[in-house]
Amino acid sequence: MNDEKDAWDELARCAAEPNPFFESWYLLPSLESFDGRGNVSILRFTQKGVLRGLMPIVRQRHYGGWLLPHIGNWRHPNIFFGTPLIAAGAEVPFWRAVLGWADANPEMSLFLHLSEISLDGPVFAGLKSVLAEDGRPWGVVARKERALLSSDLDVDAYLAKSLPARKRKDLNRRFRRLGELGEVNFKWESGSEGLVRWIDEFLALEAAGWKGDAGSALACDAATEALFRESLIGAAKRERLVRLSLRLDDKPIAMLSTFLTPPGAFGFKTAFDEDYARFSPGFLLEREFLTALHRFDISWCDSCAAANHSVMDLIWCERRPLGHVSIAIGGPLRRAAFSQLLRKELAGLNKKVNA
After folding, report:
1. Nearest-angstrom CA–CA distance, 210 and 272
2. If you placed Cys at 236, which of 71, 241, 243, 309 could pair as Cys (CB 3.0 to 4.6 Å)?
3. pLDDT for residue 1
4. Of 82, 103, 66, 65, which is closest to residue 20 (Cα–Cα)?
């Protein structure tokens, strides 16, 4: 098993597009927490005995409220990115292998559905190349953009670009007022030292707010708490984790965790103390995070935030295009039936856009 994890970790390091949520230290705890019935399979693609691609898949009976069996890349609510791990240069053979497997093993599934995948970059380009080569029906059935940080500007220049002068002055004023209550500092941490304490502080901070009241905080469910603890510990062991906290007299009032996946990174979880909401601690923390690109020598960070997020879309200027893609599989009759469904779905999307 250790050899398999080592091969998996090596694949992550040489991936054409990083995805921490499909790395061993995140996906294995995810399966333990959310796949109790063993419905999820992991497609593995090898070349000359070397692992070159990996994607978790699941057979699902329903699609958009309809009884439409299909194969999908597996995600749960805390997997924020669905692009498979594929070694750079292996994108085309990987997709050929995946589609060939789906054609040969459709069972009751009508199509392959890939959710929350990047619509730019080499992985999607490789997929489109194979689909064009096959003449296989397919379509992007949902699109969105989410906040991305990707800039060579220093923090002051970036903020001048993203925030109005009045907002920048207001944040400075709030930070000064917070400093009147005690000693204020930002604390960056990486590695495993102090991690268990940091995790405990984060879970308590999040549970004390509205998420705790709503029952959606990580600590409200044993499965999500276990995933958070195990994934952060696993990421830290591989030097894939960075933590940032805003502290008042060493008490955390805002915290965030980020997965480092050079050349980029992925935001994971944030929390702030609502008793200090008037000082905008979450916003102040995100402002400090703008130094991360230079601090950790990365070129971008995916916020993993919802589209049109009130904070991230305001402070981060760049956007990452994501989509859901449906693809025909199997023989001619199955593909013909899928094509009719795809046309109806795309026509419905066009009506919504033009309404």
Report:
1. 10
2. 241
3. 64
4. 82
Q: Mind listing the pLDDT tens digit for each residue in 302-325?
A: 999 999 998 999 999 999 999 999
Query: Over 70: is that where the pLDDT of 242 sits?
Result: yes
Per-residue b or e along 88-125, where b marks 16 or more CB atoms closer than 10 Å to that residue's CB: eebbbbbbbbbbebbbeebeebbbbbbbbbbbeebbbe
- What is the percent of the chain with per-residue pLDDT over 90, rounded to a whole number? 96
Query: What global pTM score does this model have?
Result: 0.95
Q: Which amino acid is at 178?
A: L
DSSP H or E segment with residue 345? helix 332-354
Structure-block tokens of residue 115: 């959710």
Find, among 157, 155, 257, 153, the residue nearest to 203 by Cα: 257
Closest by alpha carbon to 57, among 10, 13, 18, 107? 107
**Domains of the chain with CATH codes:** 2-146+321-354 (3.40.630.30), 151-299 (3.40.630.30)
CA distance 221 to 227: 10
Query: Phi/psi at 73 (nearest 5 deg)?
Result: -70, 135
